[in-house]
Design goal:
single chain; Methylamine Dehydrogenase, Chain H; 5-stranded mixed beta sheet; globular; 4-stranded antiparallel beta sheet; mainly beta
Length: 409
């Protein structure tokens, strides 16, 4: 029922879609169909910094066991904020600050045993981290202001195999299992959710959707967020005469607008991709022209290299209704495993993705400009953006390398 998407290799519409509004796909022309140009738009700022490596492992050839872990990253007005954990079985979790000039420092050390935290920032610039703790029959996700001990919000989650949680200040979304129906569902809670609310009161995904892997993107106004998740249903298996290593499934994306204050869904659920698709990974952004999503699609049941990469854009009106998504192709083949990133640009975004050979490319989606190859981002994943600055990361031995680049429009 769960499909283990490979979030980042650093470590996270149709009637058949089960309750979601049908969304025909409108195909838009794109210059991204042409090969990437050799020119580049990004330059390195400062020097890359390696965080959390075990002694002697900061220059190993490839990743090593129990290496440093990345939790999440976001951008402030003058720096990036990163949640990470040092290498080793007894690694220590930190909230890090990386200036736009590339300087790194720890601004909070979490208690022993903490996992690499997720991070977010509110409108006033206050920073928060989110951590998931484990108990025998449940898990507790805590949203805590940096520098404080008292949690702003605590959410008790089920003890299924998924550990995927998305959060904003005062709002948490996660997936768990409906034990009666035997399928996944997406739940949302906020600081205003009544303490006695039942397990079914905060579900936002359709009852028919086997839902997982939620992600949140805040609206430009800050009072709403778009919640995107994957849904799936079993796919008939070919008669190969052997046992498959993993259940084959059709996987597609669904989305809904969420009121940040109440956690309630605003408007209907919209299916963004076809129910016969095979979504592997995705990223979402609420930009000035609505929702932009980049999707990696591959019929194989594991997240290997290859597959196709495409982008979607859907308008969002005041009633919280998502419009019909337009779709453009980013790459038809030779896509590395993992999640492509979105860099906000007028009317759309730049899609940052890696080829099988490690080459980094920036491809316009619903915005002006040409596709480029970026040498300074080779083998690196963009994990946070702010205007012309991006924060990129990769594994170096047992450490996590963080580098800042300036990318022109």
């Amino acid at each position: 029922m769960r499909f283990a998407l490979l979030a980042v290799p650093l470590l996270a519409s149709c009637a058949k879609c089960g309750g979601a509004t049908t969304a025909p796909v409108v195909t838009a022309p794109s210059a991204s169909a042409t090969p990437a140009a050799p020119a580049s738009r990004c330059t390195l700022v400062g020097k890359p910094t390696v965080f959390g490596a075990a002694p002697g492992d900061d220059a190993a050839d490839g990743p090593v066991a129990y290496g440093a872990e990345l939790g999440g990253a976001t951008a402030d007005v003058d720096s990036f904020v990163v949640g990470a954990r040092t290498a080793g079985l007894a690694g220590v979790a930190h909230v890090l600050e990386v200036s736009f000039e590339g300087q790194l420092r720890s601004i909070a050390q979490l208690p022993a045993g903490a996992h690499a935290p997720l991070v977010t920032i509110d409108k006033s610039g206050k920073r928060y981290f989110g951590t998931l703790g484990f108990a025998e029959k449940s898990r507790l996700f805590r949203v805590v202001p940096v520098g404080a001990q008292q949690a702003l919000l605590e959410v008790t989650e089920g003890h299924d195999e998924s550990e995927v949680t998305a959060f904003l200040p005062g709002l948490v979304a996660w997936d768990d299992v409906d034990e009666k129906a035997g399928i996944g569902r997406i739940r949302v809670r906020t600081t205003t959710t009544p303490a006695d609310a039942g397990a079914d009161d905060d579900v936002v995904s359709p009852k028919e959707s086997d839902a997982a892997w939620p992600t949140l993107s805040l609206s430009p106004s800050g009072d709403r967020a778009v919640l995107v998740w994957s849904a799936e249903r079993p796919e008939p298996e070919p008669d190969s005469g052997g046992e498959p290593s993993q259940l084959l499934a059709y996987r597609w994306l669904e989305a809904a607008v969420i009121d940040v204050a109440t956690g309630r869904r605003v408007g209907p659920v919209r299916a963004l991709t076809a129910a016969e698709g095979h979504v592997q990974t995705f990223s979402a952004l609420w930009g000035d022209a609505g929702l932009v999503v980049v999707v990696r699609d591959d019929p194989r049941p594991t997240d290997g290299d290859g597959g196709a990469l495409f982008a979607l854009r859907a308008t969002i009106d005041n009633a919280g209704t998502l419009g019909e998504p337009a779709r453009i192709s980013i790459a038809e083949k030779d896509v590395a495993p993992g999640v492509a990133a979105l860099i906000a640009r007028p009317s759309g975004a730049l899609v940052a993705w890696l080829g099988q050979d490690g080459s980094a490319q920036l491809t316009p989606a619903f915005t002006t400009g040409s596709a480029t190859i970026e040498p300074v981002l080779r083998d690196r994943r963009i994990i946070a953006t702010h205007h012309d600055r991006v924060l990129a990361s990769r594994i170096v031995g047992s450490g996590l390398e963080l580098s800042v680049a300036r990318c022109s429009p």
